[in-house]
Structure formats: C-alpha cells, structure tokens
Amino acid sequence: MALGIIRNIFPLMRSGKVGHKITRSASSSSTGTVKPRICIVGAGPAGFYTAQYILKHLENSQIDIVEKLPVPFGLVRFGVAPDHPEVKNVINTFTKTAENPRVRFLGNLSLGKDFSLADLRERYHAVLLTYGAEQDNTLGIPNETLPNVLSAREFVAWYNGLPGFENLNPDLSGTSLTLLGQGNVAVDVARIVLSSVDDLKKTDITEYALEALSRSNIKTVHLVGRRGPLQAAFTIKELREMLKLTNCKTKWRVDDFHHVEESIPDLPRPRKRITELMVKSVTEQNATTAQIERSFRPIFFRSPINFIGQTKVEAVEYVVNKLVEGRAVATDQRETIPTELVCRSIGYRAISLDNHINFNEKKGCVNNAGGRVLKQTLTGSDQTIDDIEDKYETGLYASGWLATGPTGVILTTMNNSFGVADLVCRDFQNNVIKLNGSRAGIDPSGMPFVSWNGWKAIDAEEERRGSLQGKPREKLTCIKTMLEIALNAQTN
Fold it and tell me: What is the pTM of this model?
C-alpha cells in the first residue's frame, strides 16, 4: 500500500505505531473495576478485524458485535464468489474472535430498528459503526428501470444467498449479458455466468441459482469500461481465471490496444504485469480455430448513455470516449450493442441508519477523520477541520466501507480497521474516553436475537444440507427458518 494511501486512511496516526499493547487497562485506572465496554455495529470483515485488534491491545475490554442478520461475516459470506473458497478462510480467524469469552455476538438486531445510536452511546463507553455499504450507485440515464437492468450487487446477493434476494429471478433466457464496470465484482459475475455448472456444483452457490444457471442461454458476456486497458480495475488473478475458463474464449477489440504495448516499460510493476497479460492474450486470440461456445468480451472507452427497449432492455447505447490525462472524455461518436440482460457494477454506497450519525449523502459514507466520527455541527475560526479542537464525537468511530467508501479488497479493510481500532485503544489509554462508571450494554432479553451458539446451529444445518448434495454448505435464505433453528439451540 502506497504511503500516500496510508496517510489518507490514517491521517491522525503519523507519529505513532499500530501494534503496541496498551497495558494501562480499566482495572488499573482510578475507577478500579470498570471495564471498557464497546459495541461494534456490523459483523462483516471491518467489524471482526476491529474486534480482533481491540481484544489484543486493550486489556479487560468487553465487546458486543451487533448484526442485523441472524448470521455473521457480511461480505465474506455474501460477497465473495462461491468458486473462491480460499478467500473465505478468514472466517476461521473471525470465529476465534467471536468465541473469545470477552466477546458477545448479537445477531438479528438492527440499529435504527431495535435501538438507536443514542441508546448505544448510553450503554457503551465506545461505539464503532462498521455496517458497510449496501446500496448501489446508479447511472441516472434513460430507461435504467427497465426489467433486466440490475446491479451486480443484486446478482451476487442472489447467487450467494443473501436473504431478500432469493426471488430476484434474473432472466437468463437471452444470449448476452452486459456488465457495466470493470472491477473484480463484475468479473466475478462474468465468470459465474460463463462457468460450467458441473464446476459450480462443488461450491456453496445456492441451489436455486445453480438450477437457474443450468438453464441459462447466455453465451456472451460484455465487460464495458469508460476508460482504456491501462485503467482497467480488475486484478491479474481475476483476468487469469477468465483466460483459463473452460469452453470460453476471451475476445478483445484490437483497436482498444493502440499504443498500449509501447507504454508497458514505464508502468508500475502490478500494472505492467496485467497489461502484458492482456497484450499477450490479444495477440494469441486468433491462434485457435476450435469452435468455442461461450465468449468473454472486454470493451473499453465506452460510457452508457441510454438503455434501449420497451418491455425489457434490448440494447445499450454508448458514447465513445477518448482519454485526456487519464480521464474519459466523451466524443461525438456513438455505438449501440444489443443485449438482453444488464448488470451495473459501478460501486456501492452506504446509508445512514440513524439521524444522529454525521453522514455524507453525496459520498455515501460517514463523515470521519481517520475513523473518528466528526460532530454534525462544527465551530471554528475558519471552519476547516484542522482548526477545530472539539471536532469529534467522543467514543464514536467508523471503519471499513462505511468510513472509507467502497474501496479495496479485504486486506484494505483489515488495514483500515486495525488503524481505527488502534485509535480506540489510544483514546481509552489517554482518558479521551472516560471510564466514569460501568456500562450495561444491550439487554437482548425479549428480543429474537441470535447468539453465537444460535449461529453455530444454523452453520451446522447448512453444512448438513450441503453434504446431501456434495457441497460445502447449502445456505439458508429464509430468516424465519434461521431464527427457528437458532432459538431452538439457544433454549436447549
């Protein structure tokens, strides 16, 4: 990670080191027996990484991880592609964190529904908001609401079994899918749609998605980006997988690669490697004469300006772009490409779950500085953040995509969350957060909450159902069923 990026993520930590252990705990303070009580809202990667760090570096801390779903792990469970099980191995680390005796998991409880931010701040010394980004950015172009214009997030949620998306029923009867955006999420969708169903049967993809994909008529997937090959957002690992996909040929537009090869020597190493792989694939794409049924077609320098169709999408109209200092600038040229299914993949945005959260609607994230949430009303001589002394909501933090926006991979989220957790530990150490009395935490009695034992019962049932089909698990998507299994385990 570049130093500049680190400074943007952790602007307040330049003089200190992440990783120190704070030995001055609550029990050694003037309050004697008061233990730091912390609530983490969101049981995805940001929440678990934050908890992991605090447990290690803040002695006697007690942590409640609150999650709106009955099940933990967030995007690791519902975002990682089913054919990437190795990425999900981090769940083992998260499980160790959750089973620490100083941690309590409270599933099926929602901020904004079961309790307010004010409730949490009253019941805990510190509150960390880590509930991620769960809405889509939109294009704002004509006919975007046509049937069969979806988001990649919805499509991924459908095949990964996120409750509420099991009835999405994308229409796969056409022969082509267009993905707008060229990040790894878009490539994941392309790979799943173009993969052999026999290969997918060995994964934890949902049975209903597997059945739908077995009937799919899609033979061509377009992956459309507004800039050129040198700016493509997918990683080399994702591209290699597409190039090796069984019974699928990658077809590039040669015109998109004018002057690309000559710029390779001056590229940074990661960009150089992926560009070399693309150029190699371009030069080799006509080498085979074998008839291959499916095709993956990356297209560059195109921005969608209109969805064409009456009852459902039939084509996408694009403006042709040129690059000016790395930016996509529209020309007078247009191109229309037929398609029967479209998935936008142009980024996520978070939502505010409580009116007392200082939320930036334009950016879709919490207003924060290095993880400390800023007050909603700031006063200072010139209204700049650096000029205001009392600018933070004491004991309130945000990490992960809710704080940074949807950027990077799980490793990026880990680094950000560790940094924010370090700020929490320092604020306890320096009495920024005062331990002036114990905090009760949430009392979930009377609420249909899911404990960690409840989750383990759900987990076991999913693995049992999966084993009957030769799969690692068959995810439950009905919350009512999950709660019945969990609550039965918790009362026995």
Answer: 0.88
